[in-house]
Design a protein that fits this description.
Elements lengths: L3 E4 L6 E4 L11 H11 L1 E4 L6 H9 L24 E4 L11 E2 L4 E4 L11 E8 L7 E5 H6 L3 H7 L3 E5 L23 E5 L1 E3 L6 E3 L8 E2 L4 H15 L5 E4 L6 E5 L3 E5 L9 E7 L11
Parallel strand pairs: 2-3, 4-5
Antiparallel strand pairs: 1-2, 3-15, 4-17, 6-16, 7-15, 7-17, 8-14, 8-16, 9-10, 9-13, 11-12
The structure holds N-oxalylglycine and manganese (II) ion.
N-oxalylglycine (OGA) binds next to strand 7, strand 16 and strand 17.
């Protein structure tokens, strides 16, 4: 069966069909890599992947990035330090087997509070609750192209401070001192508008909202600009809502998309195995 790529919305995401990721051949991979850059998020349904298959597919995109530091540090399945578990399920001792619990995970891109954030992340679904826990994506290249000129002018050539104090679930990262002052918070500065190294397009790079700050403005001015940017990018025309099925592999481009997750019933089980691909270069500014 031949591979087909069908966009799921105009702004972000495509479903790839006709592919068994556990048996992927070298000849097919470049088309997948191109589709990932073009669409920002790829969905492969009906996969059956062991952890070794997930690692092998992930490694085709580059060197793996160690899991992020979450509310309970870094949690991996035994023997698989490069895989990280996203789950609300508790083990026999009553400790979570993974990160992010069952609450909402607010809009974010992964680990942009570092100088060299990962290029990609992927989630493979092993157990899915009967409802809730949908994951949303927004297309930051389409959102950037459609920015009102006035708003674009306010951020052009400027950097944004990305805060690493809290994760998207609102949890304090292990070992971090809490603060709501962007200047004191651990984090990184990145250009507000990036040039995507894969396709040369301009992409808005916001990271996450909490404790974020646009350089050269007062905190109040910066907050007003950020509110306007966030309202713009998370509007329905740039967004795809993913309703999970078991066996879905979803991967995203961290430079050109953001994502968030709906809460779900904490009594239900949701188990995802996840990998991250290291950034090949630091985010660079888009110069028109
Ligand atoms: C992640 C993430 C959301 C989800 O793994 O980076 O944000 O749907 N996950 O579990
Ligand atoms: Mn994430």
């Amino acid at each position: 069966m031949a591979m087909t790529v069908r966009p799921v919305t105009a702004a972000v995401g495509a479903e790839v069909s006709g592919i068994d990721l556990a048996k992927l051949d070298d000849a097919t991979f470049p088309a997948i890599e191109r589709a990932w850059i073009e669409h920002g998020m790829l969905l492969f349904r009906g996969q059956s992947l062991a952890d070794d298959d997930l690692l092998a597919f992930s490694r085709r995109f580059g060197e793996l990035d160690p899991p992020p530091n979450q509310e309970r540090g870094r949690i991996s399945p035994p023997g698989y330090p490069d895989i990280y578990v996203v789950s609300n399920v508790l083990d026999a001792q009553g400790d979570p087997i993974g990160a992010l619990g069952a609450g909402e995970a607010v809009w974010h891109t992964d680990m942009s509070y570092l100088d060299e954030p990962p290029d990609a992340s992927m989630l493979y679904s092993l157990e899915i609750p009967p409802s809730g826990g949908n994951t949303w994506f927004c297309g930051m290249q389409a959102a950037c192209d459609a920015l009102p000129a006035e708003l674009r002018r306010k951020i052009e050539g400027r950097r944004i401070k990305h805060d690493g104090t809290y994760n998207s679930g609102g949890y304090l990262r292990q070992g971090v001192t809490p603060t709501d002052d962007p200047m004191k918070a651990p984090g990184a500065w990145h250009p507000a508008i990036l040039r995507h190294p894969g396709n040369g397009r301009a992409t808005l790079y916001l990271g996450r909202r909490r404790n974020s700050y646009v350089e050269g403005y007062s905190r109040a001015e910066s907050d007003a600009i950020l509110e306007a940017l966030w309202a713009h990018v998370t509007g329905p025309r740039f967004v795809y809502e993913h309703v999970w099925r078991k066996g879905d592999l979803v991967m995203w481009d961290n430079r050109s998309t953001m994502h968030r997750r709906d809460p779900f019933d904490g009594e239900a089980r949701r188990v995802m195995h996840r990998t991250q691909i290291k950034g090949r270069q630091k985010p660079i500014a888009y110069a028109a």
